[in-house]
Structure formats: C-alpha cells, structure tokens
From TrEMBL:
GO BP terms in the entry: actin filament organization; actin filament-based movement; endocytosis; microvillus assembly; sensory perception of sound; vesicle localization
Gene for this chain: MYO1A
Binding site for ATP: 104-111
UniProt-listed InterPro entries: IQ_motif_EF-hand-BS (IPR000048), Kinesin_motor_dom_sf (IPR036961), Myosin_head_motor_dom-like (IPR001609), Myosin_TH1 (IPR010926), MYSc_Myo1 (IPR036072), P-loop_NTPase (IPR027417)
Sample GO molecular function, one term: ATP binding
An annotated GO cellular component: myosin complex
Annotated stretches, region: Actin-binding: 574-596
Keywords: Actin-binding, ATP-binding, Calmodulin-binding, Motor protein, Myosin, Nucleotide-binding, Repeat
Provenance organism: Gallus gallus
Name this polypeptide is given: Unconventional myosin-Ia
Taxonomic superkingdom: Eukaryota
Family: Belongs to the TRAFAC class myosin-kinesin ATPase superfamily. Myosin family.
C-alpha cells in the first residue's frame, strides 16, 4: 500500500484502514465527506467501496482509462478502474486467475460497476479484428440479459432480478478469447405479479414499444401495455428510459453476438406466449357429480397462443383446466377449480420464462465460449444481490441472504489467508485475529441433514398434509437451543417475550444483523411444481424452441422422479460458485446506495450505515488492521521519506532495506510500531503513518523553501551575468559604431575628391569626343550622299528594265505563302473515310492542291493503319484481297463490303459434336461454314460443313459430323464464279489428285466472297501461288463422265438463295440464279 496525499487526507481518508480512531461514526463521516466532494470510491486495503451518485460523472473518460492503465493500485485516487487494472495485470503478468465480486443491495450500482469493469478491460487489452469481435460480443451480452433479466423496482429503475457470474477467458498475451455466463435464481415470481409502482421484466415493455406493426401482428400482440394482465393493466412509461430504443439496441446486440433471425423470432414468440398467458381467463362451472371445475372464459387468447406455438387449442385447454393423477397403475383425469387453474397457468408462465432465460444464457455462451484446446486465463465477474432486510422477508430473501453469508465467509477467510500468507512471505510473526466466524450460520442453513434447507426439502417430499405450520414446528424442535435461531415458540420456552416476532416466522442472527423470515409460501416456492399435463402439452407443440424447453414432457421417456427443489438447486449452484471463487484470486467491490429516492448526490446516513453493517465493512477494516495497518516496499518507501534523514538525503547509495532502517532509526519511532519484512516495511498503527506523513510534509515545505532560495540566487546570478554580458556587448557595438562612422566620413571625403578629379577628366574627354563625333558625322554624310548618288545611277541604268519580273515573282511567292498558311488552319478531319479537301483559291495552284490532297490522305491512312490491332489489320488485308479479286467483276462484292469477315460461322467451340472435325485436318482453322454441294449427277444440292485450314479443305456431313471429303490445298487447280450476286463456286481439282478422280466440285456458299478470298490467301501462304480465278457466265467443269459446259443465267424465277441446276444433255448444264 502506498501512502499518497489523497489516501492519507485526514479529513476524508481514501483508505479506511488508515482511519484513526476507527468507529462506525468515523467511517460513515469519511464516506459522506468524500461523497460530498464527488469522490464516490474509497478503499479498504484492496477492497473498493462504491457509492452510487445517481448521476453521470466525468471520471470514466478515455483519459481516465489511460491514467489508471498500468498504474500502482494506491498511487492514484481510489477508482473502480484501479481494481480492474490490478486484476487484469495480475492475470496477464503473474498468470493468476482473478475474480471480481460485486455486492450490494438493489439500486447500489452493481450492474453499472460490472459494465465499467468489462469496458475497462476491453479498452486496455490489445486491438485486432478478431479480438475486437470477441470484446464486442462480451460487452453486447449485457443489453440482452438486462432486457430479459432486469426490471424496475421501487428502489432501482434497472434492477437485476438474477445473479450473474461471468468468466472472461484470456490468452497468454492478455487478449480476451471468450467467456461463460452463469445465472442464479431468476425472480420468476415477478412474471405473474409485482407491486404497484414496479414493472415486469423490461423485455415485455420493449417489445410492445419497439416492435414494428408487422412484428406485433405476427406475434398477435397489441402495443397497449394496459391490455395485459401480467403488466397489471398499467401504461408504464419510465422517465429517462426509451423502451423502443432499448429494443432496437437489444436486437443489434443479438445480431453482434450471433443470433440467427429465426432464433430471434422464436425467442420473441415464446416471450409473447408468456405475456398472453396472463390474459387467459377461467370461469367456474360444475360437473355432473357436483364437483367444481373450470373452463376457458374467452377462447380467443387461447387460440392465438395455440397458433403461435403450433398446438391444438383443445389440448392446451385440457392441460390448463384438468390434471392427470396416477393412482397405482391407473391414470385419472381430475378437473381443476378456478384457483387451481390459475395456479397452473401462472406456474406454466413462470416455468416457460425461467427456462427461456436459461436457454438464452446458454445460447450466448455458445457464441462467446472459447474453443477447446487453447491455453487460457480466467477473470470472473460476480454481480449478485446484496444482503436484504425488508419489513416482510420471504423465501427469496432467505435464499439471497444465505448466498451473502457464503460470500462473507469466503471474503473473511480469503482476506485472512492473504494477510497470513503475506506475513509468512515477509518473515513477520502472524498474530491470530479475532473475528466473527459465520460458518455456524452457514451450517444452520445448509447442513445436509439438519439444515433449514434440508428440513424444507424433507417437508416438501413428506406424504400427507404439508404446510408451513408443520415446517415451522419442525424447525422449532430441531433448533430450539441454537444460538443463531429464534422463533416465537423458542423464545416462549426461554420465557422471553418479543412482540416483534409473529407466530409463522423465525429469525436468524446473520453477520449483518437479525432478519425475521415469514414462512408463508416457503413450501410452494421451494417445490415450484408444474403439472405434468402442462409439460406434455408444451412438448406436443410444434414450436421447436418451446418444445426443447420441456424435455420431461416427452411421453416416450416418462419419469416419476420429482425435479430438484429450488433450495437444493440454489445450494448446489452456490457450492459450485464457492469452489470456483476459492480457485481464483479475489477482488472486491462493495456497492452502497446513498438514498431511497434515487436523488443525485443525496447522502442518507442512516441508510448508508445499515448497508455498512450488511456488507460487514467494519469487520473488513478490523481484519485488515489486525497486526500492521500499513505496509510498503522498501524502495518506494525510501523514495518517499528519504528527505527526513540527512543520512539518506539527497541520495542513498546502500540497499533499500538498510536505508529504511537508518531513516526510521533516526526518527526514533517505538520499536513495537515497526517491523521489517524481506521486501516491505510494516507500520502497526495509522497514527505512526500520519506522524511520518506530517514530518514529510514539513520537510517538503523546508526543502521547497531551500529550493526557492537556491533558485532565486541562481536567477539573480544569471541576471547579473546576463547584464554584464549585455554591457560588454553594448560597449563593443558602440565602439564599432564610432569607428564605422569615422571610416564612413573619411570614405565620403576621398570619394568627393575622386569625383571632382574624375569629373574634370571626363569633361576634357567629352570635349575631345564631341570634336571627333562631328568629324565622323561629316564624313558619314558625305559618304551617304556619295553612295546614294551611285545607287541612283545604277538603278537608272539596270533595275527599271527587270522590275516587272521581280514584282510578279514576289507577289507569286506571297500568294503561295498565304495559301499554305490558310491550308494549315483548315485541314479536314482525320477520319479515313472523309475525302474532303479545301479547293485551290487560285487556278495556278490546282495541281499542287491535288498533290497535297493525295499526300495528306495517304498520311491519314498511314496513321490509321498504325492504330490497327493485328486482328483488324488481318481483316482489312482480307478485304483488300477481296477488292483486288472481285471489285467491278462480281455483283455480290458490293453486298459484302459492310459484312465483317468472321471466318468461323459454325460455333465449333460451343458444339462438341463439331469439335472432332477440326482434329481431322490437324492444322489451324481458317474458316468454317455451312455450304450446299451440287450433285454432279442430277443437279440437286445437299448440305455440307466446309472447314478451310492452312493445309486442307474438309467437307463433312452436318448430321453425323463425319468428314465426307478431305482435300489438300495443293490439289486445287483453280476456281470459277459467275458475275452475278449468287454464291455459286466451282472448284477445279487436279486430275492427278486422289479426290480429282471424281471431278470438280460445285458449291453454293452464303459467304462466297470471304471463302474465295481466304482460299486465295491460304494458297498464297501455303504454296506461294495465287488462286487461278475465273469470273464468267460460262465455264467448263470436269465431271466423272467428261467435261461439262456450265452456263449461269440470272433469272427472276430463281429458287431463292439456292441456284437451280438443269442439265441440257450429257455435256451441258444450265444454272439459274436469282
């Protein structure tokens, strides 16, 4: 513990261990004084006391986070960030699992404290996409759990109605990996009833206020809170709380955690079922036997609930209005009275909501839990109810106070254990500390054989008539002589009268005070029975989530075993929690509520004093002060107080312990006040520490005076030295100034004499120059007149005879220059197809203008060709070749100009059937199209696929995709076409070739121009010889039976695109084309 000024301020000491004298009054006065100054946090050693200010304070900024990050716990003012940082660094650096226990009564700020701890840890841990995602999921679990587990009470607008313990797991670097949440004792009785001025759980109001019209219609809900019985038919608007915004925040939080939209919808549907169950009304009726029975008064709500959960309304009505009782091997259906029906309805609502809350916690754990196999460190945060003493205390207060007794037990034992371990570690003799051991109270409640919880379970399981009277009677018999148990009967036996203790009540002397419990409702709340018919009805529902909440309703797995009681479940949970806490290093935050009206900065001493007693703060201080109240490492102790001894001030060269011993020996404190450990100095009483701090403050004042004196002397010396230096500098500058002025005067005098001398010389030279200039001007004038005379003489003799020619040449050159300059400004566009050119302005420029036009057009074409891609260049070369072959020779050529040469018209790459044709030629494909082959026998045409490659020409059957003829290009002797716009082509084959024996080929191609052009180019590339092409109306072809003269006739009666072939004898053929 470090002794800083803030902690040792006598008016409002920051650490209550330093209080002197120690009493409830001084402790309360210190808390009130600090609270009035806006300091809501106070220490008891390493325990933080937090007083709720009921208003936002500017002490949670990022700057504050940075201030408390990696700080010494006691080196700064008390703050919740200090304990969070100390726990986080202990976990990260010393590899010790931590737990932070946050306790206090409702409204004391426990939930906010747990949020601050989690937000601080998230802020100081490292950053990264995966780490930030884990942090966000851990932080966003709070809005979801608050919506389903918090409610407005008279004391607190956002009261947690369940206990929460979260284990946050970290890796070896201190980065959060995930976590696990455990919940304890949800106040499910609030579902069916709450007092006036309070509210049910937040989720119901948030759903009605924030749900869209479509969502509410889907859930069959009305947005009016006053419509629902479980909401007390009240329109509850909570000042300062926006239910609609909180609902949207909860939905966003669920999305961040990882809830699927279907899961959110199912969750809200079950929530709506719970809310609507409160509107199911029962009416009384009588059976034929005269027994009272019940029935559904208004079936509409029942039908809507059945539609939501996918259940037959009659099944649900039977489960609500009747009960199956098993007698030996027989099942008897018994009708329920109205009161029994309402009990079953409320029990169903409570069970659904309680199990839904457990499912929600497990679902969050599924998203945030750590994958197995990773090395991890754990920090637990416990946010649980504080000790409660009301005017009427029931089963819930009994369970809550039992939990607080266990927490007090672990707190005292672990505090004493930590103190003892430190004393042993430092080699200081341990003095046994007297303290109240509350294990007798814990045993009174939890003893497995004769404890109150065991007696309650026994009474719940006992056959026959069971009620609270038999239970209190049994307690009075067993605990009649117990020191911590009282009842009306036990006091009467001792002849003690206590009118404050009613008959059906018992009193336990807790560590925080006496609490009287009313046993009414103990057995019912401990049993928490749900009729088997209702469980089976929920199992029969088609709603997946609701069905999973009631596994015991499965008729295939009937069980006659009674479920564990609430008390035994809670006892087991507390035992697990205690085991978990014992395995970790504890850190404590004690939350205190300053007033009952939730007024900002209002401190009610009586209320705070009661909580100080409930929380056992005095006991905590006494345990901490047992032995030595103050301890500190030697190095910071010596650093702080070394100025109190001349031997250690200003610098101590020895060891830190030796320095501390020399310092304290010179101060002459009583030996019994001091103890020297291995690494720390121990001081017994706060008075000694205050005396040490007082001496330090006096010495600091003396040292400050000395420092001021030395500083002022230094300042005076520096000022004198500066003034002396300034005087010397000024003198030097003044003497220099005087010398410079004298030099300037002498220089001006010399310059004046030089100026007069130079002026006299210059004037004499000027006079001489003027004389020479006049002579030169005279000679120049005489020379000019002479040259003019000679020039006029020569002009009259020679120039007049040749003047016309010279002038015309000059005018001609000027006109040409003007023409070229104008042409430069009016050049036509760069488009290749644009053949426009400015006309010649003069007739003599016509030839030059035409030549320039030709040069400019060729230059444009050259620029255009340079921009072409290899594909475009190849296509233009093909077009050029076609022009050379067919222009002005065949009528079809004009139609082909606008059609690009695609080459491939069959889609070979898309048609697997045709792909094997290309493999026949085994070389590069040039062109592929569908043609018509003319039969040489009868003149009819048949379809064929033509494939032209770099070395072959292939004709194939389009149906079978099989080659019919494969020609080598060197076998083609020539080709003939007509002058008309038809696609007829005659391929003349060499007689010596293999295919030439059958004669020439007559083909009809829809792309004749492209086919012949590509054939011509391919032959040129392959054989370096041009294709012999004949363009005529008559040509001779070679058929197997001899040569045939073919005549092509253009006729309007042609057969469309396909020519009509007619044989005129054995050696003539007439072809009609369109």
């Amino acid at each position: 513990m470090e002794a800083t000024t803030s902690l040792l301020d006598a008016a409002a000491v920051g650490d209550l261990v330093m209080l002197d004298p120690l009493s409830e009054e001084s402790l309360l006065r210190t808390l009130q004084e600090r609270f009035s100054r806006g300091e809501i946090y106070t220490y008891i050693g390493e325990v933080v006391i937090s007083v709720n200010p009921y208003k936002p304070l500017p002490i949670y900024t990022p700057e504050k986070v940075e201030e408390y990050h990696n700080c010494n716990f006691f080196a700064v003012k008390p703050h919740i960030y200090a304990i969070a940082d100390d726990a986080y660094r202990s976990l990260r650096d010393r590899d010790r699992d931590q737990c932070i226990l946050i306790t206090g009564e409702s409204g004391a700020g426990k939930t906010e404290a747990s949020k601050l701890v989690m937000s601080y840890v998230a802020a100081v841990s490292s950053k990264g996409e995966e780490v930030d995602k884990v942090k966000e999921q851990l932080l966003q679990s709070n809005p979801v759990l608050e919506a389903f587990g918090n409610a407005k009470t008279i004391r607190n607008d956002n009261s947690s109605r369940f206990g929460k313990y979260m284990d946050v797991e970290f890796d070896f670097k201190g980065d959060p990996l995930g976590g696990v949440i455990s919940n304890y004792l949800l106040e499910k009785s609030r579902i069916v009833r709450h007092v006036k001025g309070e509210r049910n759980f937040h989720i119901f109001y948030q759903l009605l206020a924030g749900g869209s019209a479509q969502l509410l219609q889907q859930l069959k809900l009305r947005p009016d809170c006053s419509h629902y019985g479980y909401l007390n038919h009240e329109k509850s608007v909570l000042p300062g709380m926006d239910d609609a915004a909180n609902f949207r925040a909860m939905q966003d939080a669920m999305a961040i955690i990882g809830f699927a939209p279907a899961e959110v919808t199912a969750l809200l549907e079950v929530t709506a079922v719970v809310l609507k169950l409160g509107n199911v009304k029962l009416s009384s009726c009588f059976q034929a036997s005269g027994m009272e029975a019940s029935s559904i008064a208004e079936p509409r709500e029942l039908q809507e609930i059945s539609q939501l959960i996918g259940l037959d309304p009659s099944t649900l009505e039977q489960a609500l209005c009747s009960r199956t009782v098993k007698v030996r091997d027989e099942s008897v259906l018994t009708a329920l009275s109205v009161s029994q029906g309402y009990y079953g309805r409320d029990a169903l609502a409570k069970n659904i909501y309680s199990r839904l809350f457990d499912w929600l916690v497990n679902r969050i754990n599924t998203s945030i839990q750590v994958k197995p196999g990773k090395q991890r460190k754990v920090m637990g945060v416990l946010d649980i109810y504080g000790f409660e003493i009301f005017q009427d205390n029931g089963f819930e207060q009994f369970i809550i106070n039992y939990c607080n007794e266990k927490l007090q037990q672990i707190f005292i034992l672990m505090t004493l254990k930590e103190e003892q371990e430190e004393y042993v570690r430092e080699g200081i003799q341990w003095t046994p500390v007297e303290f109240f051991d509350n294990s007798i109270i814990c045993d009174l409640i939890e003893n497995s054989k004769v404890g109150i919880l065991a007696m309650l379970d026994e009474e719940c399981l006992r056959p026959g008539t069971v009620n609270e009277d038999t239970f209190i009677t049994k307690l009075n018999q067993i605990f009649a002589s117990h020191k911590r148990y009282e009842s009306k009967e036990t006091l009467n036996a001792k002849h003690v009268t206590d009118v404050s203790l009613p008959l059906r009540c018992f009193r336990i002397h807790h560590y925080a005070g006496k609490v009287t419990y009313n046993v009414t409702g103990f057995i019912e709340k401990n049993n928490d029975l749900l009729f088997r018919d209702l469980s089976q009805a929920m199992w029969a529902a088609r709603h997946t989530l609701l069905r999973s909440l009631f596994p015991e309703g499965d008729p295939q797995r009937p069980s006659l075993k009674l479920p564990p009681t609430t008390g035994s479940q809670f006892k087991a949970s507390v035992a697990t929690l205690m085991k978990n806490l014992y395995s970790k290093n504890p850190n404590y935050i004690r939350c205190i509520k300053p007033n009952d009206t939730k007024t900002a900065m209002l401190f009610t001493p009586d209320l705070v004093l009661a909580q100080v007693r409930y929380l056992g703060l005095m006991e905590n201080v006494r345990v901490r002060r047992a032995g030595y109240a103050f301890r500190q490492l030697y190095q910071p102790f010596l650093e702080r107080y070394k100025m109190l001894s001349r031997k250690t001030w200003p610098r101590w060269t020895g060891g830190d312990r030796e320095g501390a011993e020399v310092l304290l020996a010179e101060l002459k404190f009583p030996p019994e006040e001091l103890a020297y450990g291995h690494t720390k100095i121990f001081i017994r009483s706060p008075r000694t520490l205050f005396d040490l701090e007082k001496r330090r403050q006096q010495r600091v004042a003396e040292l400050a005076t000395l420092i001021q004196k030395m500083f002022r002397g230094w300042c005076c010396r520096k000022r004198y030295q500066l003034m002396r230096k300034s005087q010397i500098l000024i003198s030097a500058w003044f003497r220099g100034h005087m010398q410079r002025n004298r030099y300037k005067q002498m220089k001006r005098s010399v310059l004046l004499l030089q100026a007069y001398a130079r002026g006299w010389k210059s004037r004499r030279l000027l006079r001489e120059l003027k004389v020479q200039r006049r002579r030169h001007l005279a000679a120049s004038t005489i020379s000019a007149y002479w040259k003019g005379y000679q020039t006029r003489r020569m002009y009259r003799r020679y120039f007049r005879s040749d003047a016309c020619t010279r002038l015309s040449n000059f005018i001609y050159r000027r006109m040409v220059q003007k023409y070229l300059m104008g042409l430069q400004k009016n050049l036509p566009p760069m488009a290749v197809l644009d053949r426009t050119w400015p006309p010649a302005p003069y007739k003599f420029l016509s030839d030059a203008n035409q030549e320039l036009k030709s040069i400019f057009y060729r230059w444009k074409c050259k620029k255009y060709r340079e921009q072409l891609t290899p594909q475009q260049r190849a296509m233009l070369q093909a077009k050029l070749c076609a022009s050379e072959l067919f222009k002005d020779k065949k009528a079809l050529y004009a139609q082909s100009l606008q059609q690009p040469f695609r080459g491939e018209y069959l889609g070979l790459t898309q048609n697997r059937k045709y792909q094997k044709l290309q493999a026949v030629a085994k070389d590069k494909l040039v062109m592929a199209e569908a043609v018509q082959k003319v039969n040489r026998a009868n003149g009819k045409t048949v379809p064929r696929l033509l494939l032209l490659t770099t070395e072959h020409l292939v004709l194939a059957d389009p149906k079978a995709a099989q080659p019919k003829m494969v020609l080598s290009l060197c076998d083609i002797q020539g080709a003939s076409v007509s002058r008309f716009s038809d696609g007829l082509l005659a391929l003349h084959l060499k007689e010596t070739s293999t295919a030439g024996g059958k004669g020439d080929l007559l083909l009809v191609s829809p792309h004749l121009i492209e086919l012949v052009t590509r054939l011509h180019q391919t032959l040129m590339d392959a054989t370096a010889q041009a294709l012999p092409l004949s363009i005529a109306d008559q040509f001779s072809t070679r058929f197997p039976k001899g040569d045939v003269a073919v005549t092509v006739v253009e006729s309007a009666k042609g057969g469309g695109d396909v020519p009509v072939c007619k044989k005129r004898g054995s050696h003539k053929m007439e072809i009609l084309v369109h």
